[in-house]
What we know:
Layout: H1 23-41, H2 45-61, H3 66-73, E1 76-81, E2 84-89, H4 90-116, H5 122-147, H6 164-172, H7 180-204, H8 211-229, H9 239-251, H10 257-265, H11 274-289, H12 298-313, H13 318-342, H14 354-384, H15 396-405, H16 410-421, H17 425-452, H18 458-473
Antiparallel strand pairs: 1-2
Amino acid sequence: MSSSEKHHPSDRPELPPPPGAWPTAQAAARSLLSPVERFLSIETSSGILLLMAAAAALAWANSPWSASYQDFWHTRLVIGVGPLVFERDLHFLVNDGLMVIFFFVVGLEIRREIHCGELSQLRRAALPVFAALGGMIAPACLFLAFNLGTAAQGGWGVPMATDIAFAVGVLALLGKRVRPALRILLLALAVIDDLGAIIVIALFYSSGIQLVGLGILAAGLALLFTMQKLGVRSSWAYVAPGLVIWTGTYAAGVHPTLAGVIIGLLTPVRTWLGTETFVDQAKAAADVVAGPAGTHDSHAVREKLANLGVASRETFSPVERLQHGLHPWVAFFIMPVFALANAGVPLGEARLDSNGQGVLLGVTLGLVLGKPIGVLGLSWLAVRLRLAALPAGVGWRGVLVVGLVAGIGFTMALFIAGLAFSSGPLNEVAKLGILCASALAALLGLGVGRILLSAEAPAEAAPTETAAETSTTA
């Protein structure tokens, strides 16, 4: 559920206090919590928390206490039984564990849009593919323009990646200026961009894909499909195949967050019982409970209420239920923790020699200029050639804002920089470029978005879409 769909706490129906509750204490607790609830109901609040966490991490990592920042996130975590031991640090838990849940929610949202939303039409679904390709090719070319033939040319993959968590957080700060279709475009673009980055890492920055991991991944998918065919509807039951799929991606040498996207895209999107069945079960339960006193059959009552509970749950599809349940955790816990764990980039070792200048320019301009040029340029060409279509209600101004926000590289870009340059001055310069470019891209996205999207009335984008549809069907 998007933040725009949230209801204000005052919209909820009042319930009587539970037995034994102290009304005065309950009222005091409500008065203390109501400002927090109001803040969480604001559309931009998750983006504000994200940026606050990022600023805190950056200040901490470059303060006199910077060693404590590194020590904290490298705290070792050990899980094991006997000789089977899995040991990683806290940073790994955040990036490869908690962020899987974030990508799972992203996969759920894209799955819903493919079923009945903006991505349900082939040409509209094709637009983020072309946008992502343009957003990868143009930054890599810009980087090579400054570094081809030098010792730094191997870093061409650094400015290709978009950090989906930060990009979504910054876009959220634009509030109601951002239409749902535009947010879906960014989500789909960023997921495809991440898949492209994973392929680039596998082909050019690693020893390749491990077949054993792919086998484990296939086993997890087989288990998931089998449970779906058997009619298993409990969300908790799918944790087991989810862990197998995560293990497979990790063992294959692929970033485990891909497991979240895969599971989200495979989650059922259709309801089982629907509202009519819920109404019928509610009437049946009410008839039993409201019968004459002393005639209640406790077994019958429990059975009817259990059926009512199932009907209540299955009135919504698994995609809707999981999105609604996980959205607050993702927006107000996982994303801020992710920012706190990744935005702390120490900048003390950057050296701007001849190679360093090329890396800094290539990374910064690749993200800040290459991303919007590539996203907007290839999207425009695809629509012009009738290979894709703009989402309903979205014009080229919106696509430009998405391209600017896509220039926030951060985590995946930092990861590729570490593979391309290892440790040393060029890696630190690349980090400096990523940090500066991401901050500049965020500011440009916010500034341009406030100027352009506020002036983009619904009627303006509709003719563009109609024209695109007409030209395609002609």
